[in-house]
Amino acid sequence: MRRTWSIGTIFVSGGLLMTVAALAYPAMVGVEKTVAGPERIIANTQFGPLTEADRDFVVKVRAAGLWEYPLGEMAMERGTTPEMKEAGKHLVVGHAGLDELCRKIAPELGITLNNQASPQQQQFVATADAATGREFDSTAVTIMRVTHGQIFPTIAKIRASTRNTLVRQLADLANDTVLDHITVLEKTGLVNHDQVNYQQTNPPKLPKEQVTPPVPQPGAPMVVLTPRPDLNVRTSAPTATPAPPAGKG
Predict the structure, then answer these.
(1) How far apart, in whole angstroms, are the C-alpha atoms of residue 146 and residue 56?
(2) What does the pLDDT look like over 8-26, one tens digit per residue?
(3) What is the pLDDT of residues 162-221, one digit of tens each?
(4) How many angstroms separate the CA atoms of 172 and 156, rounded?
(5) CB atoms within 10 A of CB 192
(6) Sign of the CA dihedral with 61 first, then 230, 3, and 130 last
(7) What is the per-residue pLDDT across 126-164, written as a single tens digit (0 to 9) for each?
(8) Is the pLDDT of residue 29 over 70?
(9) DSSP the chain
(10) What is the Cα–Cα distance from 181 to 185, expressed in whole angstroms?
(11) In this structure, what are the phi and psi dihedrals at residue 143, rounded to the nearest 5 degrees?
């Protein structure tokens, strides 16, 4: 499958001050957005009520895969260490699985999925793509660790509040997948936690058009992220590594 990634007109301080901003994507089929409010019920489905927050979460997960999957492929091909290449595998496998579930539940809930990431997210890919060698590793890890840290609390909030069983299923899978991705990114040894924590809590203020995925063209074929069972990677929640006995290691 051939993918084309256009570069959004966005300036990023130092090339790394990037976070995932909230996406407002009016993508419900047959439902007009008349009143703002994430807890507003916009549809009653056989799987439970669907709120604006539920709908936007499905779109966010879809959009995340549309830029993190190709960045994972870059990490597999261009990473300079085994840990970096392994992180790339986990990104590809994890987002292929999430994308499959998004495409499965969206028609059941009446949600129209986007076929492109937002301009901001496309810029994430372009920024990493412009780097080489160890700089590529560091740039890609920082971008991905910040964005995964940003979405993690959102997943927990949706999981705790949604009354829709399909959205709950997606939140469960997203929680495991993002935790796995955070873990493998940290195993690269390239995460600067002070920098990451600052960027996660001080997101840039960007225009809405930069953080909203483009509306798909009518009749456009659905973009599918190719599953990669050949990579033999599991992205379920990782098991914590036991701490060494006191006085050792």
Answers:
(1) 20
(2) 333 333 344 433 333 333 3
(3) 999 999 999 999 999 999 999 999 999 999 999 999 998 898 889 999 999 998 888 899
(4) 9
(5) 14
(6) positive
(7) 999 999 999 999 999 999 999 999 999 999 999 999 999
(8) no
(9) -----PPPS---GGGT---PPPP----BTT----S--TT-EEEEETTEEEEHHHHHHHHHHHHHHHHHHHHHHHHHHH-SSHHHHHHHHHHHHHHHHHHHHHHHHHHHHTBPPPSS--HHHHHHHHHHHT--HHHHHHHHHHHHHHHHHHHHHHHHHHHHH---HHHHHHHHHHHHHHHHHHHHHHTTT---HHHHHHHHHS-----HHHHSPPPPPTTPPPP-PPP-GGG----SPPPPPPPPPTT--
(10) 6
(11) -60, -50
With vertex at residue 235, the alpha carbon angle to CA 229 and CA 238, rounded to the nearest 5 degrees, is 145
Mean pLDDT, rounded, for 33-56:
83
Looking only at Cα atoms, what is the longest distance across the chain?
64
Q: How far is CA 106 from CA 112, 169, 176, 233, 235, in A?
A: 7, 12, 20, 26, 22
Burial class (CB in 10 A: 0-12, 13-18, 19+), 186: middle
* Residue 225 token pair: 């992220």
Residue with tokens 């997203």: 174
For the chain, give the mean pLDDT. Answer: 84
Write the single-letter amino acid at 28.
M
